Inverse folding.
């Protein structure tokens, strides 16, 4: 191997392993996709009007619902990233919300004082400023007034709460910010009535009374391991925060459970990418297949005596993952979800591409492909 490529790959491996070990896991890239938001009639709320895609969820507590989430929701594996093998999702956050995803996780970095959605390093993968993305989410929420949305932001470079506050204010999304009252979590209906329909968790942040809706993740949420590299590696054991000794103690302290359910594939040494080859199994609603989302959720529900309030998956359209949320929530007739024909077409393109990778490419070819994709990016 020529020295420059060799050292390039070594750098790549370092970056990839950093990405892998960063909080919440992570991986890859920018934006661009389908679908105008689905406008929902702003009818006076009553039991016949759906909250988060079902009338049955309106009277349920926010904490007693499974909110299906897209892990690294802005890092895409699509034409905009030349189908980067490091991408975690086929579709952007607007499409995810249209499809029923109600939790969006992102990783942010500091780029000359701007909070930017970058994977590991902004020189490597940059999905744009957080503020621009927040404006897209606000636009969707404007058009979908009966929907409660949750954000989970990994603050990789320790940006200050005031910088986040500014991005939330300028994007216009701060008006929806929910501030806990200290009396437990309200029903979706009461959050909708108050129009405080956005719950924002940041890991990690020093809270500020100026921005009371920017919540510290680990004061409110505990989570399972995010470094799973085998389909038999999913469990319900508390991984973070370290201040809680177990899931049971976190639950009794009032923390809400987050179940991480995405797998990485090792390309040798320290190079890790989202395991797309197994995603049909990983995201399956099956409650009997090892590694399946349905089985993991059912197992955690049984162990915890509490449904997973939050779940994070890669490639949310696979499974489809939302089916497992419906199972957990006891929903059989979801309403108002949108699957544009463009999204469906793109999905089949992506599936064809994935099939090709899975069928033919060995590790060496994949590493070379990854290197080429990053050189071109
Ligand atoms: C998703 O893509 C659509 C179509 O390109 C765009 O209108 C929308 O703003 C994007 N949403 C996000 C969150 O990037
Ligand atoms: C959660 O919701 C389910 C379904 O409505 C209900 O049976 C259960 O009692 C609720 N649990 C709590 C703790 O509110
Ligand atoms: C839970 O899963 C993680 C990731 O696979 C693993 O590191 C950890 O040891 C497991 N914990 C238990 C108690 O099995
Ligand atoms: C749209 O529907 C198709 C067929 O049911 C499915 O395979 C695809 O994942 C869906 N796409 C989105 C974005 O929901």
């Amino acid at each position: 191997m020529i020295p420059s490529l060799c050292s390039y790959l070594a750098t790549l491996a370092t970056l990839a392993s950093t990405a892998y070990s960063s909080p919440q896991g992570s991986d890859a890239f920018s934006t661009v996709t389908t679908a105008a938001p689905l406008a929902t009639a702003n009818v006076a709320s009553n039991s016949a009007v759906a909250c988060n895609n079902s009338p049955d969820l309106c009277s349920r507590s926010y904490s007693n619902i499974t909110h299906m989430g897209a892990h690294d929701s802005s890092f895409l594996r699509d034409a905009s990233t030349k189908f980067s093998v490091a991408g975690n999702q086929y579709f952007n956050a607007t499409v995810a919300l249209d499809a029923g995803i109600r939790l969006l996780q992102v990783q942010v970095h500091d780029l000359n004082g701007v909070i930017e959605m970058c994977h590991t390093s902004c020189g490597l993968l940059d999905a744009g400023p957080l503020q621009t993305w927040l404006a897209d989410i606000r636009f969707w929420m404007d058009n979908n007034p009966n929907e409660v949305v949750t954000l989970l932001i990994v603050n990789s470079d320790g940006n200050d709460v005031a910088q986040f506050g500014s991005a939330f204010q300028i994007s216009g999304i701060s008006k929806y910010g929910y501030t806990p009252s200290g009396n437990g979590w309200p029903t979706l209906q009461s959050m909708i009535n108050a129009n405080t329909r956005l719950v924002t968790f940041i890991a990690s942040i020093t809270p500020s009374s100026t921005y009371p809706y920017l919540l510290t993740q680990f004061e409110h949420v505990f989570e399972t391991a995010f470094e799973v590299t085998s389909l038999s590696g999913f469990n319900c054991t508390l991984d973070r925060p370290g201040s809680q000794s177990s899931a049971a103690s976190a639950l009794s302290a009032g923390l809400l459970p987050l179940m991480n359910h995405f797998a990485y594939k090792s390309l040798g040494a320290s190079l890790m990418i989202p395991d797309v080859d197994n995603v049909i199994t990983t995201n399956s609603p099956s409650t009997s297949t090892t590694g399946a989302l349905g089985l993991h959720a059912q197992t955690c529900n049984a162990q915890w005596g509490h449904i997973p309030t939050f779940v994070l998956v890669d490639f949310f359209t696979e499974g489809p993952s939302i089916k497992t949320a419906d199972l957990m929530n006891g929903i059989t007739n979801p309403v108002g979800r949108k699957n544009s024909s463009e999204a469906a077409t793109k999905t089949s393109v992506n599936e064809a591409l994935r099939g090709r990778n899975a069928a033919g490419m060995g590790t060496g070819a994949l590493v070379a492909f990854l290197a080429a994709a990053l050189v071109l990016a």
